[in-house]
Structure formats: structure tokens, C-alpha cells
Specification:
The protein is an alpha/beta fold. The chain is built from 11 helices and 9 strands. The strands form 2 sheets. It has a 6-stranded parallel sheet, sandwiched between helices. Strand 8 and strand 9 form a beta hairpin. Helix 7 packs across helix 8.
Length: 279
């Protein structure tokens, strides 16, 4: 497994591989890797001749400076995991390498970025789009893999590729969960022992919503689950909505003609966790 830090060397290496007729799969990450990330890599390995993983904590997608500072950075451990999992190439650039000058790009994703994460984290998705487009230009993959835990991000990336006519196929991959249902996240390691015991309640609420589809109004079902979660020690729900999977527009009525998904963001102590479930 090669570990590269410069854009020039990474691009040249991947271009050579493509000239040899090899297909390239790509998994962009911010490191602190867990089984969720490795499941994306496994998909890439099964689909492609060469698999590339980027590790870069992207500062421009954080609207909370403290969150950026506390984000776990475990490059050596990450690279060991990737090598064991069969990764071919790691791109691990510095901030100066990715952003040598002022970031000028601005993207408009319309209503996709005005709800849920977009509403609560201003500028977040523009930061995601900027870095992902740059990573696509550097790693020039045939296919790129994104987890459905960040479902809104997945839809934003699909929109970016369509808008910018980027020749890459975006593959969405299922959420990977702990044995107790908690969606795997790099932030989970920051939960205290007590918080970690409470955290699976998030997934339980999403399953309760799925069980109650059509029983009571959407608002009644959401309100009940939100109240139950907020009654738990340290839990403070930021949003809990049901939205259609395509446009991400929150719905107020059950509509069997739409594919619906329940989305949640909640603080558990100081840690912000997100999850979603098809309903």
C-alpha cells in the first residue's frame, strides 16, 4: 500500500494506473476509521482493480471550531487498518496542500441544502462539495463510495456530480451499526461510558417511527419520540423529521407514493450524533 501526501504524485500515480486499463474506486474519509469506512472500502475492492482512500480532516466543512479541534486524528492507526483491509493507495494531504489559496468556490444545491444538516450547519455542505470536487479531480476515480449514514451528504454529492458533469459513479452504501444498533461514527469514541449506554436509544426511536407509520399523524409520531429522547440524561434532539428520499423535503402526511426516511440529529452531552432509517 502506498501513502502519498502531494496532489501531483497522487494524480500522476492514478493516471498511470488508469492508462494501464485499471478501474479505480475511491473512498473519501476524514480518518478515525471504523468498520463503516472499511465496509465502503470492501465495496470498492469488490468493484474495482485499484482502491484509493483519502484521509483529510476538512476544516472548511466545520462550522464549530471546537468540533474541528476535537476531531480525532489517528493517521498511523488508520493506515494500518487500510493496509490490512486491502487498500492500494492512501492520499493523506496537509491543509496547505489542499487549500494553497483562499477558497472561492460556491455551490448552490437549492432545497437539498436548506433542510436538516444544511439548516443547522451553515456553510457545511459547501465545504463538503469543495473538498469532494477537489478530491475527485486529484483521484479521478471511476466510482466513489459514500455511506448512507450521511444520507443528505450523499444526495448533495450526487447533485454536485450532476451539476458539474463529473465523470464518476456515486455508490451509496448501507449504514453499519454496532451490535446494539448505534450507527458507527468517528465521534462515538468521545462518548462517556454512561452516554454510550444511552446512545442506542436513537436507533430505537427511528425503529419506533417505522413501526408507527400510518398510526397517528406524522407530527404526533415524531413529537412522541422526540419527547422520549429528550427525557434521557444528556440528550437534546436538534431535529427529528420524516422527509422524502429524493428531494429531502420534510413531510407532514404519510404518503405511500413517496419513499420516506426518518432523519435525526441529537446532542448527547457535547457530542452531536446523526442517524436515519428508511420508513
Amino acid at each position: 500500500m502506498k501513502i502519498l501526501e502531494t496532489i501531483k504524485e497522487t494524480k500522476e500515480t492514478i493516471l498511470r494506473l488508469k492508462e494501464e486499463g485499471k478501474s479505480v474506486g475511491f473512498v473519501p474519509t476524514m480518518g478515525a476509521l471504523h468498520e463503516g469506512h472499511l465496509s465502503l472500502l470492501a465495496e470498492s475492492i469488490s468493484d474495482n482493480d485499484v482502491s484509493v482512500v483519502s484521509i483529510f480532516v476538512n476544516p472548511i466543512q466545520f462550522n464549530n471550531k471546537a468540533d474541528l479541534e476535537k476531531y480525532p486524528r489517528t493517521l498511523e492507526d488508520d493506515c494500518n487498518k487500510l493496509e490490512d483491509a486491502g487498500c492500494d493507495l492512501v492520499f493523506a494531504p496537509s491543509v496547505d496542500e489542499m487549500y494553497p489559496g483562499k477558497v472561492q468556490e460556491h455551490y448552490d444545491f437549492g432545497d437539498l441544502e436548506r433542510v436538516m444538516e444544511g439548516a443547522h450547519r451553515p456553510g457545511h455542505f459547501n465545504g463538503v462539495a469543495v473538498v469532494v470536487k477537489r478530491l475527485f479531480e486529484i483521484c479521478i476515480p471511476h466510482k466513489a463510495y459514500f455511506g448512507e449514514k450521511d444520507y443528505q451528504q450523499l444526495r448533495i454529492i450526487q447533485s454536485l456530480v450532476e451539476q458539474q458533469n463529473i465523470p464518476v459513479e456515486i455508490i451509496g452504501c448501507p449504514i453499519v451499526r454496532e451490535a446494539d444498533g448505534l450507527a458507527m461514527s468517528s465521534r462515538n469514541v468521545r462518548l462517556s461510558a454512561e452516554e454510550r449506554k444511552i446512545a442506542p436509544s436513537i436507533y430505537e426511536s427511528l425503529k419506533n417511527i417505522r413501526r408507527k407509520v400510518g398510526n397517528g399523524t406524522v407530527n404526533e409520531v415524531l413529537s412522541l419520540e422526540k419527547d422520549k429522547l429528550n427525557s434521557l440524561p444528556g440528550m437534546k434532539v436538534e431535529y427529528l423529521v420524516i422527509a422524502d428520499e429524493d428531494k429531502l423535503k420534510p413531510v407532514n402526511n404519510w404518503d405511500e407514493t413517496k419513499k420516506l426516511r426518518a432523519f435525526i440529529a441529537t446532542f448527547l452531552g457535547e457530542i452531536r450524533l446523526i442517524d436515519n432509517l428508511k420508513v
